[in-house]
């Protein structure tokens, strides 16, 4: 989350909230790809986490990046907490434990997306290397305890950190010790949104398996292939999960509004101040009777910020966010948007993906989601292994990308970005299983080599 919304236009009715979503519908020609990825900064000497302050801290990194790319600083009071590209639309932000995130610009092709990723990684290396730190792409920090992990100076994170332990066992792990790569994709209408939401929710465990990359915690195997995904199973189940209601008759923008209204709030922001209202009702704010701001009604900013604190496997804003994948090596940062773009932005592929999943029951979908963090490709649904299912899903995506037929300067279409997934499927092993094999073999049961061999 790069920057909180700033729009003080009042919202006084539920219908206005529904209309806000409806305004997100776009013509197919306006569809864009927005890729976000997080990574762990670590000191080159000692492989320790990087604090915010200090000559060689995160603040220095942000200031160096700002000098290099001339993006606008995002400030919280006197503190720099991110950077915004006011021309292209991208942004750099900090997650709670210092995870460094690029929120990519909305781009037309995957060729542009991957060029953006590579340019960003070149820039962060240029600034970070003289400061003495590098970056690691995994789904969970492999070494550090929560106590060792720094806390970034953002007001919303303090509120969340106080609330998380009240509603689940893994909220602080999620905040401070996980990284993801996700893609944001558009919809053309309410019906298109519903179909894409259902496909995304049903097949999100496929992405979790393909990108499973968090098998270590505090220096040892944790028993999972995607512990990041397992963490989400008990973070805050009032605002996370598979949203079974999305598959019911009558699913609509209106139905999602009702769901979001019932998700407890974290905060209300007025000016630069975050007001802790964790557990309270957005319905009270909408009605002008919220005790934290008596007499005030909700604003567009309040609604957009509230939606950013809801964490289902697929999140609806004015676009759809695919949230099931672990962070990973640079090659996977292009593979994740390639997978979902191939499924979503070609009607034949979208239909084929829905045909795969439409017969599954809510119980089958949930069991698959629950099994994949531990079993990966060995999980099963409706008599099929995840490995078999993932191979078919990737082929559907490949065909969709081929039909899109966006070519690079060498004449290659976008399907080339699926190559890392092809390698995993051919081996029948998730990225996490390959890490575990190295841990048990060449790494001599140490995670330290991951900071050398898998750094960006």
TrEMBL record:
One example of a Gene Ontology biological process annotation: glutathione biosynthetic process
Q: Which reaction does it catalyse?
A: L-cysteine + L-glutamate + ATP = gamma-L-glutamyl-L-cysteine + ADP + phosphate + H(+)
* Gene Ontology molecular-function annotations: ATP binding; glutamate-cysteine ligase activity
* Signal peptide coordinates: none
Q: Mention any Pfam family matching this sequence.
A: GCS2
**Pathway assigned to this chain's UniProt record:** Sulfur metabolism; glutathione biosynthesis; glutathione from L-cysteine and L-glutamate: step 1/2
The top EC class, named as a word, is ligase
* InterPro entries for the chain: GCL_bact_plant, GCS2, Gln_synth/guanido_kin_cat_dom, Glut_cys_lig_pln_type
Q: Name the EC number(s).
A: 6.3.2.2
The record's listing under NCBIfam families reads:
glu_cys_lig_pln
Q: What assembly does the database describe for this protein?
A: Homodimer or monomer when oxidized or reduced, respectively.
Family designation: Belongs to the carboxylate-amine ligase family. Glutamate--cysteine ligase type 2 subfamily. Belongs to the glutamate--cysteine ligase type 2 family. EgtA subfamily.
The free-text function statement in the UniProt record for this protein reads: Catalyzes the synthesis of gamma-glutamylcysteine (gamma-GC).
Q: What is this protein called?
A: Glutamate--cysteine ligase
Organism of provenance: Ancylobacter aquaticus
């Amino acid at each position: 989350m790069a920057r909180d919304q700033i729009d003080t236009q009042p919202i006084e009715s539920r219908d206005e909230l529904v209309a806000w979503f409806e305004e997100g519908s776009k013509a197919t020609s306006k569809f864009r790809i927005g890729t976000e990825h997080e990574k762990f900064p670590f000191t080159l000497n000692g492989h320790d986490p990087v604090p915010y302050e200090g000559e060689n801290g995160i603040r220095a990194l942000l200031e160096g990046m700002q000098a290099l790319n001339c993006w606008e600083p995002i400030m919280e009071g006197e503190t720099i907490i991110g950077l915004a590209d006011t021309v292209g639309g991208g942004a750099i932000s900090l997650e709670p434990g210092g995870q460094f995130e690029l929120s990519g610009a909305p781009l037309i092709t995957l060729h542009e997306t991957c060029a953006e990723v590579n340019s960003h990684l070149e820039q962060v290396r240029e600034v970070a290397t003289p400061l003495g730190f590098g970056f690691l792409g995994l789904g969970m920090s492999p070494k550090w305890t929560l106590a060792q992990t720094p806390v970034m100076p953002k007001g919303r994170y303090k509120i969340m950190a106080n609330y998380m332990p009240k509603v689940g066992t893994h909220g602080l792990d999620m905040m401070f010790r996980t990284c993801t790569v996700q893609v944001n994709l558009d919809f053309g209408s309410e019906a298109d949104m519903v179909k894409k939401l259902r496909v995304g929710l049903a097949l999100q465990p496929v992405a979790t398996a393909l990108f499973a990359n968090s098998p270590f915690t505090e220096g040892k195997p944790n028993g999972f292939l995607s512990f990041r995904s397992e963490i989400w199973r008990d973070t805050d189940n009032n605002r996370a999960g598979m949203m079974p209601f999305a598959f019911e008759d009558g699913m609509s923008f209106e139905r999602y509004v009702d769901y979001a209204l019932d998700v407890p709030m974290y905060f209300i922001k007025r000016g630069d101040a975050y007001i802790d209202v964790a557990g309270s009702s957005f319905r009270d704010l909408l009605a002008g009777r919220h005790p934290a701001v008596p007499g005030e009604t909700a604003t567009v900013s309040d609604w957009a910020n509230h939606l950013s604190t809801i964490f289902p496997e697929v999140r609806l804003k004015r676009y759809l966010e695919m949230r099931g994948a672990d962070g990973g090596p640079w090659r996977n940062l292009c593979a994740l948007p390639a997978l979902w773009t191939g499924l979503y932005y070609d009607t034949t592929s979208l239909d084929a993906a829905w045909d795969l999943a439409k017969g599954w029951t809510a119980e089958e979908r949930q069991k698959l989601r629950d099994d994949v963090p531990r079993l990966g490709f060995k999980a099963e649904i409706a008599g099929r292994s995840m490995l078999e299912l993932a191979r078919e899903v990737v082929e559907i995506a490949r065909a969709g990308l081929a039909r899109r037929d966006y070519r690079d300067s060498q004449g290659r279409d976008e399907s080339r970005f699926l190559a890392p997934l092809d390698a995993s499927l051919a081996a029948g092993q998730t990225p996490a299983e390959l890490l575990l094999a190295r841990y048990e073999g060449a790494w001599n049961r140490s995670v330290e080599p991951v900071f050398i061999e898998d750094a960006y």
